[in-house]
Hints:
The chain is α/β, with parallel strands linked by helices. The chain has one domain (3-187): Rossmann fold, CATH 3.40.50. Helices cover 28% and strands 25% of the residues. The chain contains five helices and ten strands. The chain has helices at residues 3-20, 39-48, 59-62, 65-75, 151-160; strands at residues 26-27, 55-57, 79-80, 88-91, 116-120, 123-132, 140-145, 167-172, 175-179, 184-187. The strands form two sheets. A seven-stranded mixed sheet has the order 1-9-8-5-4-2-3. α1 (3-20) packs across α2. The protein is globular and about 40 Å long.
Amino acid sequence: MSQTAYDSQSAFRALMDATARPGTIRTLDGEVAPAPLMPATAAIVACLADFETPVWLDPALSQSPSVVEWIRFTTGAPLTTDSRAATFALVADARALPEFGEFAQGSEEYPDRSTTVIAQIERFAGGPFRLSGPGLKAPRAFAAAPLPADFIARRAANHGVFPRGVDLILVAGDQIAALPRSVRISGRD
Length: 189
């Protein structure tokens, strides 16, 4: 098996584990990709995106010819300017995270036809949140920064349309944490 295939399988397993255990931080063997893509963002894109999965890039990423070319060459994924048509959305800086309603929400019949948003942050520290819901035996603390000031309200609105809504993967360097739409997020007590 090639190293690329092994790395992709390893990234996929880490991502699935992070999704099954919301808020758990996992480290990925990162991909070498052009800035401002972080290594774990590149690893996720390389293992999930393909010619059938439209990818939306925020302005910081879409204006980088090297990022656009890397995604096209590495994945064959079509790039879209319509965020509601995207299977995956990449956000270079979570402070500029668009409203979740700007992405595909799925439907009652096909909730899986929603967008997975991959947003880059600086660190898994800072904003103290409490996570609860599927995949968590008990509520747990979680921290990620920087995020929009209204992040908790945005996530509550996203959770309110469950089973529709977007899933969120946060990336800091070579680390990831998944926050599926099924998870409730509140401020720490």
